[in-house]
Design a protein that fits this description.
Length: 156
Amino acid sequence: MDGDLYNGRIVLVANSFVFKEPVFNYSGDFPFLWDEIKIPIQYGSNYGTATEIFMRVGKEVAGDITDQSREKWNALQQKYRLEDAQTEPMVSLIANDNWVEYTLRYVVSYKRRRITKTELFTKILNEIEATNGDIKFASATFQLVEAPELKVNIKK
């Protein structure tokens, strides 16, 4: 996970593994994980519409467990004295050298992580295509601004 945000993992360290390795328990007190997908969008796209689409799709697909995960998180806060964390889907973005990178972060059941990610990407792909070019996916492309001058000498 990026941004130093919670990922939902609870690390249990067995006595015999104190200096060997952590044990991750996905089905313990908090059977949810924070997951995220990254969506690269071309510069010049409609950023407001993109944000709205990603938020709406996030709520449609992953928003149904927001209340369940909020309840469990509140109980964990009391038990382990944790700080509050957002369990609702959220969208953030950064601008990098090549594109605007959106991140859709959401809470998901540890058993449905891959299924949820597939459903999110499928809906997002369809929604972006429906904008008829208002929003465009970015990819690593190269644009030649000017071709160098070529000098060819043919000797007979």
